[in-house]
């Protein structure tokens, strides 16, 4: 809402409904991802950093070969959940007039007087969009867990 209504007043630059929705969702999800990855890296035991330092591995290689592979295992579950949250969160874009799946479904149900059928199709569409993502992240988690054993 703020990017759509407030930014043009302050800057004189209008992003449009789609641009404002994309920017707002992008900034919101970026903040979530930043915290997820920060926590994933912080969750790696300090001795891993120290061991890499003792072995003479530089900071870049320590991150690349020691810390990030371990952190990836920690961040996969919340990353998958956040991606699904982003897909479902696009429904908020309708508040500023951006046509999105739920809003289009509501408009169609208003025109056809068949809300149960229309909104069921919308629910199935959301499921079709999010379930493969959940399966993908689950498969990656399982593959990484198998590598631990």
Q: Assign the structural class, choosing from mainly alpha, mainly beta, alpha/beta, alpha+beta, or little secondary structure.
A: mainly alpha
> How much beta, percentage-wise?
under 5%
| Fourth CATH level, the homologous superfamily | MetI-like
Q: How many distinct helices? A: 6
Question: Mean of the pLDDT scores?
Answer: 91
Walk me through this protein's architecture:
83% of the residues lie in helices and 0% in strands. With 149 residues, the protein is mainly α. The protein has a single domain (2-148), classed as MetI-like fold (Orthogonal Bundle), CATH 1.10.3720.10. Helix 3 packs antiparallel against helix 4 (59-89) and helix 4 (59-89) packs antiparallel against helix 6 (115-148). The chain starts with a helix and ends with a helix.
Give the SSE map.
Blueprint: H1 2-11, H2 16-42, H3 46-54, H4 59-89, H5 101-112, H6 115-148
